Amino acid sequence: MTTIADNITTVAARIAAAAQAAGRDSASIGLLAVSKTKPAAAVREAHAAGLRDFGENYLQEALGKQAELTDLPLCWHFIGPIQSNKTRAIAEHFDWVHSVDRLKIAQRLSEQRPADLAPLNICIQVNVSGEASKSGCTPADLPALTAAISALPNLKLRGLMAIPEPTEERAEQDAAFATVRTLQDSLNLPLDTLSMGMSHDLESAIAQGATWVRIGTALFGARDYGQA
Questions:
Q1: What is d(CA 31, CA 11) in angstroms, rounded to the nearest whole number?
Q2: Of 1-5, 14-18, 37-41, 178-182, which range is least confident?
Q3: In this structure, what DSSP letter does residue 23 have?
Q4: In degrees rounded to 5, what are phi and psi of residue 20?
Q5: How far apart are CA 42 and CA 125, in angstroms?
Q6: Exposure pattern of 170-208 as b/e (b: 16+ CB <10 Å)?
Q7: Is the pTM here over 0.85, yes or no?
Q8: C-alpha closest to that of 124 among 171, 153, 162
Q9: What is the mean pLDDT of residues 197-223?
Q10: What is the DSSP letter of 138?
Q11: Strands 53-56 and 212-215
Q12: Residue 131 has what pLDDT?
């Protein structure tokens, strides 16, 4: 039976191979361990195997894990849909938010970020596949939203995040991720982050410029949503 450490080694090798194929330095690609529905013990095990960055979708679950893991120097990323009544806790307890898709949420995060903390790193989630079930701003709305968020204090706009419609076709994966990269390039801002790619499509995401790949299943195994 493979351990989390074994899985990390396997995923790291996939990232390194994808980076080499794309002519990129693998050090420019961060591995964000998506620990939603997994216990604090799994996060602790992953940290012991060398990981520092962990992504959570569900606020209450995340806060419980954070309380159990205060002894570890972890960097917490919020990557799920954000409701207005959750912004204060997110602003207070996370280092990154990848899933901002409207100005109201960004404004609340800015206002509620504690003054003694560094600016909150922000990615704007863009819905590149046009799926009604997916969060994210439309490509057409992105320039105005980006400009408005860039002007807010207490936030540091880093780049874009996307979850394209799942497909096993490499050409379709490449096209979706290339669209995200093109959108970011068109903004003409000093952005350094593309949060895109998951367990099934990280190779394509890296080929198209991903700087964070968000990996859950390949690290921790299948999720039990009954425990979420």
A1: 9
A2: 1-5
A3: T
A4: -60, -40
A5: 27
A6: eebbbebbebbbebbeebeeebebbbbbbbebbbbbbbb
A7: yes
A8: 162
A9: 95
A10: -
A11: unpaired
A12: 67
The CATH code of domain 4-220 reads 3.20.20.10
Distance from CA of residue 26 to its chain's centroid? 17
Q: Tell me the pLDDT band of 227, cut-offs 50, 70 and 90.
A: very low
Residue 38 and residue 61: Cα distance in Å, rounded? 9
Residue whose C-alpha is closest to residue 41's, from 1, 3, 11, 94? 3
Predicted pLDDT at 228 = 39
Q: Can you read off the two tokens belonging to residue 89?
A: 């806790």
- How long a stretch of residues is the chain? 228
Rounded Cα–Cα distance for residues 36 and 38 (Å): 5
CA dist 61 and 36 (Å) reads 8
Dihedral of CA atoms 61, 67, 72, 77 in degrees, nearest 10, equals 40
Read off the pLDDT of each residue in 100-114 and give the average, rounded to a whole number: 98
